[in-house]
Amino acid sequence: MQINEDLIRSVITQVLSEVRSRSESAPTSSGTSSAGGERFGLFTCADRAAAAARRAFEQLRTRPMDDRKKAIDHIRRISIASAVELGTMEMNETKVGRLKHKIEKLETLGRRAPGTEFLTTQAYSGDRGLCVIEHAPFGVIGAITPVTHSLPTITGNAVSMIAGGNTLVVNPHPSGRKVAAEGVRRFNQAIYEDIGIDNLICLITEPTLESASAIFKSRDVSLICVTGGPAVARAALNSGKRAIVAGPGNPPVVVDETADLDRAARSIILGASYDNNLLCIAEKVVFVVDSVFDAMMSAMERAGAVRLNAAQIDRLTAAAFQEVGDDKHLAPTKDLLGQDAAKLAAAAGVNVHAEVELLFGETKAEHPFVSVEQMMPFVPFVRCRDVNQAIELAKHYEHGFRHTSIIHSRNVNNMTKMARALDTTLFIKNGPSMAGLGLGGEGYPSFSIAGPTGEGVTTPLTFTRERRCSLIDDLWILGGPQS
Length: 483
Ligand code: NAD
Known about the structure:
The protein is an alpha/beta fold and 483 residues long. It is 41% helix and 19% strand.
């Protein structure tokens, strides 16, 4: 190679840019970064956040698995120890849901979000040697998170993504950005002080649709994971990158004539009132066969839910929905989304005790509370001729999201029929919806359930790529010719 002035100039430019970029990301001995404000994961610029997450990934990939475990343990510890403080902060900022459940969600994800134990190696051995399949990181994952569980989604995503060896850059929902930033700052600080890597989780402090789009487009980002409604699901699928999409749901419940009605009522109240029905898996509408419809309504009242009559439901409906968008589709109003049952009751013209967790009432199938993903502690009950009609309506109003469905029944044929017809990612039988996420049932929790793209309830394996490593003709220690 010939050394000339251009070559020298280009090498110097490259070295200077490298030095500049390293000094921007390197934390000082006091744990701060020289890049003014861009420390412990908090960034205003999406490109700089993605670049910092990429640098953190390059550091993490040189470290042992034990460092991933240490990082995750800090996230778990902080989520549990600060659940009351951060849960209260989330409640005050987002103003949707219920405080005790905000706290419980952080504690649960801190305790049980799946970690490095999910990464097991597969091996094939035989006459021709040994082949192992391991789970490698993607790199930087761009995550978009919802207002309904701002910090809990980040907590669960961070545990699973870092367990898989990745780092992340998060665009939180603008209405939950402050608690998201506070959680991320604490996680990063503790991780940095222990293993010396900052910015494993980078977050945009003033998130916009533009910053989301910049994350989608960034060359530093290898994979997208979005948790939210239809618009962000569409945007991720059109991003040109591989996307894991945890999209919207409208979970229907079927109650047939063989169900334990009191158990069904308790389950529906537990699931539909949890965090004021904000969960994407929560019971949104109940289809009950005619022969037990009246008995089921009585069971709901016995279990503590308050029944609204037709006029009260009409008043509530007028306050609960508004037309939005060019196509004027109905969406829940901000005034009532995620609010307490007592507030919904007041809008319906009824006074109920503050302790009441759920309202319910009879509606036709063609009702906004049935068709719209409403996220409020009022559940419509629809009378159905028989179980076949109940399943048919459940399928129709699940809208093909293939997200979550629930049945209360002792008839295995009906369970099978519904499972086959709706084809949902979660199918829960004889319990509250969240039992299907491991909260009161078997399995593990995650608040990103990828229905449209098929990964299901996300785990560290969701965020890894398979790599195969083969040794030919050697290391099969059980047989073959003697050497
Ligand atoms: P949302 O769709 O309004 O917002 C979710 C996130 O997407 C936010 O960060 C928002 O800023 C962003 N966003 C919205 N449109 C975008 C676009 N065009 N491009 C880029 N980003 C965009 O939802 P929400 O009100 O925050 O949360 C409730 C919704 O999320 C419900 O539909 C619920 O079912 C769904 N959800 C799904 C899961 C799951 O695991 N499948 C979990 C929680 C919530």
